[in-house]
């Protein structure tokens, strides 16, 4: 081990010599004039800090060069640990177009949903989450905690964007909610959903739409 550490020790000695810290060779200016004292002290401290940085780097080199001996490696053998996750892994797929509708003069405005999909091999029930927003906003990023909780319990969770006022009128938002359910049923195999077990939940305006969707 000493033979491995020798190059690192030599590196330290070289650094010390370069920075003038052995045998009083450090370059300290002669007695400065009073009006230059602050500048000289600043230069001295800068050189001192640089020397300390190089010493710390040399210390890291020593640790890396030393490593473990054969006896130490035998005393602490590597082990493989089997770790079982306590929660179901959930994958998110964002920006899925579930329908195209006329809006603001466009004939094919895309409405999207985001899907949280537990990673299971069996068919799973699904829940459509309809966000609130006073019928003037439908930000599908809302309800993160609730959606994650349901997904960890084994539900495929969809959160949707739907048409809102003033550009949309009832029953257009309700039609969008029903269209999202039809999309999940039509693509049940793709998303590993049990098409006979699709529920709906919402808050505020989303709660009204969920109730009307039946």
Would you mind describing this structure in some detail?
With about 210 residues, this protein is of the alpha/beta class. It has helices at about 1-20, 35-65, 70-75, 145-150, 170-185, 205-214; strands at about 90-105, 105-120, 125-130, 155-160, 195-200. Helix 1 runs antiparallel to helix 2 (about 35-65) and helix 5 packs across helix 6. Residues about 1-5 and about 20-30 have low confidence and may be disordered.
Give the gist of this structure:
Helices cover 40% and strands 23% of the residues.
State the main characteristics:
single chain, 214 residues, alpha/beta, five-stranded mixed β-sheet
Question: Order of SSEs, N→C?
Answer: HHHEEEHEHEH
Helix content: 40-55%
Strand proportion, as a percent range, falls in: 15-25%
Total strand segments: 5
The total of helices stands at 6
Overall pLDDT confidence: 82
List the helices and strands and how they pair.
Elements: H1 2-18, H2 37-66, H3 70-75, E1 90-103, E2 106-118, E3 124-130, H4 144-152, E4 156-160, H5 172-186, E5 193-202, H6 205-213
Parallel strand pairs: 3-4, 3-5
Antiparallel strand pairs: 1-2, 2-4
């Amino acid at each position: 081990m000493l033979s491995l550490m020798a190059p690192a020790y030599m590196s330290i000695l070289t650094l010390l010599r370069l920075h003038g810290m052995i045998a009083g060779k450090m370059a300290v200016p002669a007695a400065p004039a009073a009006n230059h004292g602050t500048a000289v002290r600043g230069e001295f401290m800068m050189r001192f800090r640089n020397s300390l940085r190089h010493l710390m780097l040399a210390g890291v080199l020593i640790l890396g060069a030393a490593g473990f001996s054969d006896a130490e490696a035998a005393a602490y053998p590597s082990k493989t640990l089997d770790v079982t996750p306590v929660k179901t892994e959930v994958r998110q797929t964002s920006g899925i177009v579930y329908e195209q509708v006329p809006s603001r003069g466009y004939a094919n405005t895309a409405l999207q949903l985001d899907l949280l999909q537990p990673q299971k091999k069996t068919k799973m029930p699904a829940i459509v989450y309809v966000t609130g927003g006073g019928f003037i906003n439908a930000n599908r990023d809302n309800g993160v905690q609730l959606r994650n909780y349901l997904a960890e319990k084994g539900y495929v969770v969809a959160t949707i964007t739907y048409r809102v006022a003033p550009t949309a009128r009832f029953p257009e938002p309700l039609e969008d909610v029903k269209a999202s359910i039809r999309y999940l049923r039509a693509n049940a195999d793709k998303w590993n959903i049990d098409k006979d077990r699709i529920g709906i939940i919402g808050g505020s305006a989303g709660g009204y739409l969920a109730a009307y969707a039946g």
